[in-house]
Amino acid sequence: MTKKHERSKAADEKSGISIHSPLPELLAHTHLLTERQRHQGSIGPVGPLLCVHAEGTRDGQPVAVDRFFAGDCSPQAALLAMRNYGPERDHLLFVVDAPPERQRAFVRAGFRLVEIQWLMACNLAGWLPAETEAAVGVEVRRATGPGDALALSAIDGLEPVSFDELHDPALSHYFVAVNNTPTAYGRNARYDETIAWVSHVFTALPNRGQGYATALMRQLLTDSTKESVGQSLLLSTDMAHSLYARLGYRDIAPVTIVQAPPALLRRSVRRP
Questions:
Q1: Which CATH superfamily is domain 138-229 in?
Q2: Side-chain half-sphere of 82: how many Cα atoms within 13 Å?
Q3: 3-23 pLDDT tens trace
């Protein structure tokens, strides 16, 4: 058994769920779940890394984004692969299940630490929402039509949700309305027949700390159980970690997100 599969097995035992793919591969494929992502993106190996390449537009101009995913990989091997891959953009690298010493090694090698997040999972077999009474005027809704897309644009700081995304059969969009004003948003994408991927959970800054994201997640998970989803996965920040833990999510692995600046990619690299 390889180290990657040993770690996946250990994560299974710790979280109580079953994951059959190596964790870097699983995380990479979460960037290709929607019709829009699959249309604009592709995935392939780059040395010891997996790369998800996506092309789109920003402010009317074409843009390309590359995200790399690694497991048991040294900073030198990762940097060499990214350098050989090409264009000198600010590449992001997601290092899955790296121990603290390896996290520090990437920083010493010249990568910029962006954030350490947590890959988490919730086993939905027998999952029951906590018995809570919704506050007056607070409602969790599922966004479906153009009117909902326009309503979501009122959430300050939320990336716009397109009409095409609302009609994607792989996606379910949720938002919290307080006295009919949208204040929080989150979405659920089907990874496969039994696994769903939660992302883009966001609450407008003035409305944080009032339980809106918790209410949204409870409704999302309740609907997931009705739709035969057995496992719910997500990538959590430190700030949101306690929220997801209270809902039943358990840690699978840390995910260290680092950036390789163009200047680092131009620098000569010692082969590992």
A1: Gcn5-related N-acetyltransferase (GNAT) (3.40.630.30)
A2: 33
A3: 444 444 444 444 445 555 689
